[in-house]
Amino acid sequence: MGVIVAMHAPDGFLDPSVAVVTAILSLAILGDCLSKCSGELQDHQIPLAGVSAAFIFSAQMFNFPVAAGTTGHLLGGALAAVLLGPYLGSLVVAIVVVVQAFLFADGGISALGYNLLNMAIVPAFGGWAMFVLARKVLPANRSGVVVAAGLASAASVVAASVAFSIEWLFGASAPVPFDTVFSAMVGVHALIGIGEGVVSAMVVAGVLASRPDLVAGASDLELSQLENPAPIGLRAFVLGGVLLAAVLGAVVSQFAFDDPDGLERVAIDNGFMDSAANHWFGGSLFADYATRGIGNERLSLAVAGLAGAALALVVAYGMFAAARWPRLQRGSV
Amino acid sequence: MIEPAVEIAELAFRYPGSKEWVLDGLDLVVRAGERVALLGANGSGKTTLLAHLNGLLTPQQGALRVLGHQVGPSSIAELRRRVGLVFQDPDDQLFMSTIGDDVAFGPANLGLRGSELERAVELGLASVGAEYLRDRVGHHLSGGEKRRAALATVLSMEPELLALDEPTSGLDPVGTRELAKLLIGLGTTQLIATHDMAFALETCPRSVVLSGAKVVLDGPTRELLADEALLAAHGLALPFGWRIPQEVQPTEG
Amino acid sequence: MSGHHGALTRGASIHGLYQPGHSRVHLLNPTAKMLGLVVFVTLVAVTPRTAVAALSANAVVVALVMVVSKLPARMVLGRLAAVVPFVAFGLLLPFIGTGTRVHVGAISLSVDGLWASWNIVAKAVIGAGAAIAVTSTTAITDLLSGLERLKVPAVLVAIAAFMVRYVDLVVGELARMRIAMVSRGHDPRWLWQIRPIAASLASVFVRTYERGERIHLAMLSRGYDGSLPVTRDVEPLRTSELCVGLLPAAIAFAGLAIVLWP
């Protein structure tokens, strides 16, 4: 259920006020991406962005096995950011989302605000932030780029689920408490993130092997730095990811359920309870929605505030990192 | 005397970052109105040579004159208009939403609008007999239709020199025959890179063979193809069971 | 998992969404249709869930448009499958929802959950139905130029057009690689066995990107200078057509106005 809820939400799935606020936010960010890319898009990037969108669209339909014959498929937001850079990457995924809504009735047209945020912007910039951070601690070689891409892709899926949960808090259309939605969404997406991370990492590895110049996230490296093969076995990678997700899940659930007072105190001390909720979603407009159908209102607000602030920081860092990334613009054909 | 359509002397080119010369000291003259087949094994530089003709690539060494212009930054706009380059894969050439838009793309870039543009599109489609494809989507055409549509996208610009890269790839024998007939009927100067010896014999009175980054053989197609040993020395082979029948003459354009 | 996955893997293509026809809806100006669609679904989304009559009227409007367009019921139902997961989620809500409960026989249902269920199912079906009605009666090229008329930046529409043009090709390539793998006995069941699949994705990305590079060369060859030329005259939008396009939206607005009137 979690997967499905985060993707392609239909019309009226969240409250109209959330649809409006997220639409404004998404349009502003995508507009900024467009102006950042406009120089490149003047020339060869238009057909390249177009075929890349075709690739992301197709990759989303391409099922891969997860366990015992069950399958999953790529979301591709972070992968697009690593391959094309976060600005063009988020634009390309945004175009995929819009075309899916208009042509396939897959995701509501009035729901585009939050669908764009959850499927294009948060994964691309959140993923890019994680990628840049991971690159800083990992060696500057092919394995470093590949592992960073995997971590970024896994994190991007979890970030998308966090974003959805927060939207749910402010615009739930159904009496399901935020706590339940949050833990279910983040838990399920931590698992989905493993698949996303593994596949994205291997796709980046494959592209690096044949056309390293096509990986924007590796554009700061010389070809000689990219020549070594990945030393980590795939099985170790997958099992490590499962372990990491399990630990993360355990920690999150501890926070969410067992130690509410501690978290609440942190939230109040840091002023998140007021500022995060108000600044992110425009304040009193949402006051009514936050209280509706939520068991422990203060806990929910605290969790959402923290998660929202963290997510906003991550996405903002991704944009900041993108603006400073060296040689993001690829050489011409 | 009319100026040659293509005049190449000592042309050399290698791709950035590569040590290997794809073209190295290549000489070739093509007279206006000629149809010349460009034969050569994979990687012999046929496509690279064609990409020089309209300035997609500019010569690194040597001289290259096309339709009376030295190929270089100052002549590129002019050459893009007058030299029609047809790519090997029609799906690369048919990138717009409909065939009509694809055929209009070139003339529209030249600044044509309204009825002038309409005339150019009709001309392009009519010269390949593809008027019925106008509102169709590139993805759904047959191999032969794609090939003709790709040709129409450059014919709408009324080029004086046509450069075709492997025009028969992906075509069945009937499609190949139709294409040969069409090209012979056009009357423009043509340079056709191909692996298809029968097609070369049918369409081009003259052939040149590229090998070792230069032109190694140049002569009437029928004579070149009659010397199997010479072809084999340059990495070329005739189709199985194929001999040039003595009575067949290459068609004169 | 969602509609398009099924639609394309069954061999249909993105260009197969359009159902050619000559109905009043088919012939209506595409920009009018798309504007009508956007306004209509927005109004449906903001209609309160308690306005059962208004939402029902909107559903009837969508159904009427489909009937006028002579859309095959089987096709419409198949494409509505995109919202099935959400409908399923909606149908769960009466059971998992909190608050006051009603008892139907032995089953206890949440009242709030029932309303939420109705809200999600109704709006998802009406919204998707409206989008299906428009995309099934409008050629993709017209939809794209409609997007441009609706002030979506031309660059983005151009990227979308390239995507639509090449998506079937990319899907085909991936499908062929999958078949080649299966025919050589590679049928992975666990995540750590998928290196070949990921490798095929990587090589399809590289090939796709290289196609993009060749397309760019083909564009340059025909005089492209970085700004996309206008290759067709856009049909002017007449006021009368705009009014017809906005008719469903007007009905949705009337329903909303009656409900919200104090």
Topology:
The complex is a heterotrimer of chains A (333), B (253) and C (262).
Chain A: H1 2-6, H2 16-41, H3 45-59, E1 63-67, E2 70-73, H4 77-84, H5 86-104, H6 112-137, H7 142-171, H8 178-210, H9 234-258, H10 260-269, H11 272-281, H12 287-291, H13 297-324
Antiparallel strand pairs in A: 1-2
Helix pairs in contact in A: 2-5, 2-6, 3-5, 4-5, 4-6, 4-7, 4-8, 5-6, 6-7, 6-13, 7-8, 7-13, 8-9, 10-13, 11-13
Chain B: E1 6-13, E2 23-30, E3 35-39, H1 46-53, E4 61-66, E5 69-70, H2 76-82, E6 83-86, H3 90-93, H4 99-109, H5 114-127, H6 143-155, E7 161-165, H7 173-186, E8 189-193, H8 197-203, E9 206-211, E10 214-220, H9 221-226, H10 228-233
Parallel strand pairs in B: 3-8, 3-9, 6-7, 7-8
Antiparallel strand pairs in B: 1-2, 1-4, 4-5, 9-10
Helix pairs in contact in B: 4-5, 4-6, 5-6, 6-7
Chain C: H1 3-9, H2 24-27, H3 30-46, H4 52-68, H5 73-80, H6 84-96, E1 101-104, E2 107-110, H7 111-136, H8 140-149, H9 154-183, H10 195-221, H11 239-245, H12 247-260
Antiparallel strand pairs in C: 1-2
Helix pairs in contact in C: 3-7, 3-8, 3-11, 3-12, 4-7, 4-12, 6-7, 8-9, 9-10
How many helix segments of chain B?
Answer: 10
Question: What's the helix count of chain A?
Answer: 13
Number of strands of chain A: 2
Count the strands of chain B? 10
CATH architecture of chain B: 3-Layer(aba) Sandwich
- Proportion of β residues of chain B? 15-25%
Mean pLDDT of chain A: 77
User: Which architecture of chain A would the CATH scheme give at its second level?
Assistant: Orthogonal Bundle
Poorly predicted runs of chain B: none
- Approximately what portion of the residues of chain A adopt beta-strand conformation? under 5%
The Cα radius of gyration of chain B reads: 18 Å
CATH level-3 fold name of chain A? Arp2/3 complex 21 kDa subunit ARPC3
SSE string of chain A, helices as H and strands as E:
HHHEEHHHHHHHHHH
Q: Any idea what the radius of gyration of chain A is? A: 19 Å
- State the end-to-end CA separation of chain A: 43 Å
**Largest interface, and how many residues on either side?**
A-C, 88 and 100 residues
Class inferred from helices and paired strands of chain B: alpha/beta
Instruction: For the largest sheet of chain B, list the strands in their spatial order.
Output: 6-7-8-3-9-10
CATH top level label of chain B: Alpha Beta
Under CATH at level 1, the class of chain A stands as Mainly Alpha
Unreliable segments of 5+ consecutive residues of chain A: 1-6, 254-294, 329-333
